[in-house]
Amino acid sequence: MTSTPSLYLGFDLSTQQLKAIAITSRLEVIHEALVEFDVDLPQYRVEKGVHVNASENEVNAPVAMWIDALELVLTRLKEKGIDYRQVKAISGAGQQHGSVYWSKDAGSMLQELDGSKSLREQLDPKAFSHPDSPNWQDASTQKECDEFDKCLGSEEELARITGSKAHHRFTGPQILRFRNKHPDAYRATSRISLVSSFLASLFLGRVAAIDIGDVCGMNLWDIQQGQWSDPLLELAAGEEGSKLLLQKLGEVRKDGGGSMGSISKWFVDRHGFNPECSVCPFTGDNPSSILSLPLKSEDAIVSLGTSTTFLMSTPRYVPDPAYHFMNHPTTPGLYMFMLCYKNGGLAREQVRDTINDMRKIGPHAYRWSLFDEEIFESAPMLRREPDSPLKMGLYFPLPEIVPNVRAGTWRYTYRPDTQRLARQDEAWSLPMEDARAIIESQIFSLRLRSQKLVTSPHPDVPPQPRRIFLTGGGAQNMIIARTIGEMLGGTEGVYQLDVGGSGCALGAAHKAVWATERKEGETFEDLIGSRWNESGAITKVNKGYERGLYKEYGKGLPGFATMEQEVVREEAELRQSENATSGELSSKDDPASTAVLEKLSLEGQGKE
Ligand code: XUL
Fold first, then answer.
1. What's the pLDDT score for residue 2?
2. How far is CA 212 from CA 192, 223, 396, in A?
3. In angstroms, what is the span from residue 284 Cα to ligand 1's centroid?
4. Ligand 1 neighbour 96 (Cβ under 6 A)
């Protein structure tokens, strides 16, 4: 007689979809299901998962839609043959920074759910003090961000304490704006969840604790002290007082493993879950992505989706306003380093399209091969002769986060010997040279910002990541993979990471396995590392570090850094003159962003 294996479920509540994945304790994927909000839940009239109020740079998602999505994804998993009695534990990932506002009735409503009725009809709208969750793409909080950056003296200090300077999407500034804009709803709020802890709460039948990794996306948590920051809480809480806000936020669970409790009776009655199924801590989608494989310290994941994300697990806490540090979701003593760019694939596609247009190729037949050819046929940094200058540019069709500047394109020449940098479009063969320059520009930025965090494996080798794993659409492009190896290195090579449709959901399922089966003191990396089938999940696509080319690009790096500084300075001047004329706009308001948001209807901001 064969015994039925235990299953572990991982969920990913992302911007446009809810994904679910079921794995065994040997980490084999058994079932997967997906709900796409735009397509499957048209009644919510979302576009790419969200509602946009461009006049205020607001981006929101309806919470009720996520509850409907949960019911639908569970039904779809069942249609695929899952037996929920086999599920031993559940974990999940949620888009970071978003917040859900529970009403005073939520606690009792969650506890008394009736299995004969749907979750949504029982919870919506009464369990919430507000129907919407501000989304990570929201950019309405510049005024609040200015207050956060000032609160501890400087953005450097805010980054040192919380791991990040103030960002529009971070939950602290969002709560402050919510309180000012909806004072009655704020007062009627009993608890505030992040998207990850919101989803966990549905499974748990009570409001779940915020997780130790995800809490770092709020600008409220003092990472080194391991506690809420009092002055930041006070700022967000205003005259209502930080004590009340503290109650709304609840405890933060410091252990990313173990069980928060067993599954709510509603899931047992409605879907046949085992009443003993554990609900493990849920975390943010980025922390969850680094759990999709047993990432070693100084290994990096570069996600080349519509936007670009660079994630690294590191024991070094070196905060800086240019990037993010978060607690590692499972392993105390490690941190997650993150860079998050808005302009990734969309920016590359624009250059590809212009090159195709030049060759009179219609939009339906746009080819990457023409773009790739331009890179094959040119030299690093577009240097034509040994004594000709290097060329480099910045390509931001959308306002960028890293660095924080408005939309635009900038092209420069740079001479490493004299360090002469000049803005010079006329020196370029356009649009062809943009192909190499945009790829190099995106990778230069990663190298510039990650170099403080990596070490040398050997005195002869410069500091760089160990293994670099590429995911997302851009990872299929071999010329991008090659350029990443040449510029960013990778002492143990560059790999394509094939973890199926959702690395975040898989990471969550891995987390459920580790959370439940770990022995005393056994780390995630050890447990998952010993069970992980590397050959099925990664393919080496480039050898990585090559001394000559890496050094060559090193000569261009100071030029790239200076070019960025010039553009940031120009931005500051523009903002100052806008402030002077309007007298209203705050120092970092970005009038371009409204127009771009409208024009692109959020194309390119979603990660998936
Ligand atoms: C990270 C961020 C995005 C969202 C996407 O800071 O805002 O990556 O987590 O879901």
1. 55
2. 15, 9, 33
3. 8
4. yes
Q: What percent of the chain has pLDDT over 90?
A: 83
Average pLDDT over residues 532-553: 94
- Whether 15 is in the pocket of ligand 1, judged by its Cβ within 6 Å, is yes
Quote the DSSP letter at residue 6.
P
Residue type, 203: F
Q: Percentages helix, strand, coil for the chain, rounded to the nearest 5?
A: 45, 20, 35
Dihedral of CA atoms 273, 277, 281, 284 in degrees, nearest 10, equals: -30
**Rounded CA separation 596/198 (Å):** 31
Residue 599 CB neighbours (<10 A): 12
DSSP 464-532: --S-EEEESGGGG-HHHHHHHHHHH--TT-EEEE---S-HHHHHHHHHHHHHHH--TT--HHHHHHHH-
Closest-CA residue to 87 (of 263, 306, 336): 263
Q: Is 145 helix (H, G, I), strand (E, B) or coil?
A: helix
Chain centroid offset of residue 555 CA = 31
151: left (phi over 0), alpha (psi -120 to 50) or beta: alpha
Q: In what order do the strands lie in the sheet with 538-542?
A: 324-327, 335-341, 308-314, 300-304, 468-471, 494-497, 538-542
Q: How far is the CA of 136 from the centre of ligand 1 (A)?
A: 6
- Distances, alpha carbon 378 to alpha carbons 64, 285, 316, 427, 437, in Å: 52, 37, 37, 15, 10
Mean pLDDT of the 443-450 span: 96
